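Crash report, auto-generated. Payload:
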Amino acid sequence: DVKVTQSSRYLVKRTGEKVFLECVQDMDHENMFWYRQDPGLGLRLIYFSYDVKMKEKGDIPEGYSVSREKKERFSLILESASTNQTSMYLCASSFLPGTYNSPLHFGNGTRLTVT
Amino acid sequence: SQQGEEDPQALSIQEGENATMNCSYKTSINNLQWYRQNSGRGLVHLILIRSNEREKHSGRLRVTLDTSKKSSSLLITASRAADTASYFCATVRPAGGTSYGKLTFGQGTILTVHP
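Recovered output after restart:
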């Protein structure tokens, strides 16, 4: 079974802190994604990566950056955390580059609270 | 705006009844996927239906796709209390260039199955 592991289930940070959310997958997937999930807004794509060192902006990249130095690891960085970044963050990965018929495998999420 | 929109937003039924959830989308798609999310957890892929397919089955799940109406439905037959979860549709739009499968999620239907 594919396993996508997010380093923290719960995280509390202060406004202005630099925050790192880590995600590791164990199935050699090319594609990795970061979503945030908020009540009433559903899941929104922040960034994705289809290869090492490659990244593409999603729908809401402002205030975030990402890093993919190794194929199995995709990090989301909040350069200066703000209260409106309090949310559930979900990492996902998928296989089969070159096609779109590949399901996403999700981690269990990191619930981030910025105070 | 969200590509997929689920209807109803919430559904409450008794064990043994069937549950039907609908999803509408706005632009052409490559495929449509349904996911399930238990409270506080990540999403789990249920079923994928391609744009050239009309119906697909997986166990107690039946998914239909009507591309002329830009809609899909998920039917869970003989529901169980363990089916209680949020259900999301996600669409993959045709895209050229980079090889990734970018999914756009709806806001989900909250299903409660009472024992």
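Post-recovery validation: The first strand of chain B starts at residue 4 and ends at 7.
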